[in-house]
Amino acid sequence: MRIATSTENGQQELGMVIADRFYPCSAIDQTLPKNMSDFLKGGEKTMSALQEFEHALVQGAIERPYHLLQDTQLIAPVPHPSSFRDAYAFRQHVETSRRNRGLEMIPEFDKFPVFYFSNHQAIQGPGPIPCMPLHLNQLDFELEIAIVINKSGINISAAKADEYIAGFMIMNDFSARKLQMEEMKLSLGPAKGKDFATAIGPWLVTKDELEPYKVQAAAGHIGDCYDLDMTCKVNGRQVSAGNFASMHWTFAEIIERASYGVEIVPGDMIGSGTVGTGCFLELNGTARLKDPNHKDQWLNLGDEIELEITALGKLSNSIVLHHS
After folding, report:
1. What is 81-99 written as a DSSP string?
2. Do the strands 127-131 and 237-243 form a parallel or antiparallel pair, or are they unpaired?
3. What is the C-alpha separation between 176 and 258, in angstroms, rounded?
4. In b/e form, how buried is each residue of 242-274, taking b as 16+ CB within 10 angstroms?
5. How far is residue 115's CA from residue 256's CA, in Å, rounded to a whole number?
6. CA atoms within a 13 Å half-sphere pointing along the CA-CB vector of 288
7. What is the pLDDT of residue 323?
8. Which segments of 265-322 does DSSP mark as H helices, in order?
């Protein structure tokens, strides 16, 4: 099931995407939630209700009003997460990025999954990403996958953690690298380099849709794992390629860590971290090692960025100047 949020005349509306159609929940049945927040708080009850209507619509058992997807303005499927954590779960990205800076692989990476909190009030969907001038100094994309929680819990074991995931989304964690590198010298992690925009979308894909892609987690790890190709194109040229199955720490293990002594609640969003080759910071560093004369590439005004992940769709954004 693909669940999306649309906007029209300032009004946000939850709905289902079936083929090339967007079915607003309000037009399907008045008992269904009208926004993503209520859908997630409803947990399994609202999930099952929506799945029943989706099955009926696909089978032609019922008919409901719809909008063509091409005529529908989609925003972030989860416009207002209750919190936003971003992990650091792909070994290739961490190892390569450290090598490019002349650093050994840090052994703590294999001991526990780490994450930082970012700005859950700066979530974007498909479309323009407004940037301030300082953001445009070494502006970067990050090719990631995000999950959102639809069940409360604390001290959740990795063996049960996948039950708390409502679904998966493509995520682009836009990063102002100049700002980020300056502030991280103070050893507090990224803040202003990250807090201006994170794009997710185009829809939330529920776990049942990903069953055909499920593979065994890596040895010694617990949780669902999926074989999903991940790519990024900038202005139509592919610059990045990876796979979700190469994620070292599973989302289940990240949830176990995140919920240790802390309650996670419906609406909490968690990013995977960058897949290997999934940002210019890593790509530029690798290219400079091969060729000292390499000219770094960064995102600029007017650039079009398209992230595509198997079964999750395409997330397209463009870089524009913030008019404050």
Report:
1. -SEEEEE---HHHHHHHHH
2. unpaired
3. 26
4. bbbbbbbbbbbbbbbbbbeeeebbbbbbbbbbb
5. 12
6. 15
7. 86
8. 280-290
Instruction: Kindly state the tokens that stand for 146.
Output: 């995000």
Question: Residues 46, 7: contact at Cβ < 8 Å?
Answer: no
Separation between Cα atoms, residue 213 and residue 152, nearest integer Å: 27
pLDDT (tens digit per residue) in 158-214: 999 999 999 999 999 999 999 999 998 888 888 999 999 999 999 999 999 999 999
Strands 83-87 and 268-271: parallel
Q: Is 103 exposed, middle or buried (0-12, 13-18, 19+ CB in 10 A)?
A: exposed
Phi-psi region of 94 (alpha: psi -120 to 50; beta: other; left: phi over 0): alpha
Residue 242 DSSP symbol: E
Closest CA to 278 of 170, 182, 192, 195: 170
pTM of this prediction?
0.96
Give how far Cα 128 sits from Cα of 4, 186, 191, 306, Å: 18, 32, 21, 12
Contacts of 315 (CB under 8 A, 6+ apart): 126, 170, 171, 172, 199, 200, 201, 202, 306, 307, 308
Query: Beta 214-215 vs 11-18: how paired, if at all?
Result: unpaired
The helices-and-strands tally (H runs, E runs) of the chain is 8, 22
At 92, the pLDDT band (50, 70, 90 cuts) reads confident
Distance CA 284, CA 295 (A): 8
Beta carbons of 287 and 294 less than 8 angstroms apart: yes
Tokens coding 321: 């100047």
Angle, alpha carbons 52-55-59 (nearest 5°): 145
